[in-house]
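Narrative summary of target 7.
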Amino acid sequence: MAKKAMVERNKKRRRMAEKYAAKRAELKAMAEDTNRPPEERFQARLKLAKLPRNSSKVRIRNRCELTGRPRGYYRKLRLSRVMLRELASQGQVPGMTKSSW
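Modeled conformation, tokenized:
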């Protein structure tokens, strides 16, 4: 199980990214618009830099929903490989069985 603080920090980052998503997208569009004057684009970049770092979507770490494990993560299922195998062995995942030969 991952440290509770790490899981909570990640949740905080998700909330912040969602909160600032619209503002961040607007500033990025202004900064990348070549039709605008360079001064205006630069000001947009400065405003973007003043936003909290954790509001960036890039800083979010994908973690297992059950254990918080950061590695071996399946995006489609939002589970780590360890929990996926355990749940499949218990018959909790429909259509999935542990292979044996």
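The mean pLDDT is 93.
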